[in-house]
């Protein structure tokens, strides 16, 4: 007799994990500048960096990145 495997599919959910926080960053993409704010725990800090960068350089196009942490749990 050959061994058998039994598979059970269990539904899971993925949600933001508040304990992981959120990180905010801004990257200048004007003319290949490449300057970046670095990661900040507050959105205002990354935005303020972009505003200061624009004031110093005249660059006005940025890529904003918001990173969070997610937790996977079994759906009940």
Automatic annotation (TrEMBL):
InterPro entries per UniProt: DUF7848
Domain DUF7848, first and last residues per copy: 1-75
A Pfam family this chain is assigned to: DUF7848
Name of this chain's protein: DUF7848 domain-containing protein
Species of the source: Streptomyces malaysiense
């Amino acid at each position: 007799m050959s061994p058998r495997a039994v598979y059970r599919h269990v539904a899971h959910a993925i949600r933001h994990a508040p304990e992981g926080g959120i990180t905010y960053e801004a990257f200048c993409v004007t003319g290949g500048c490449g300057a970046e704010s670095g990661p900040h725990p507050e959105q205002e800090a990354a935005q303020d960096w972009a505003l200061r960068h624009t004031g110093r350089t005249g660059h006005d196009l940025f890529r904003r990145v918001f990173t969070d942490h997610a937790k996977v749990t079994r759906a009940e």
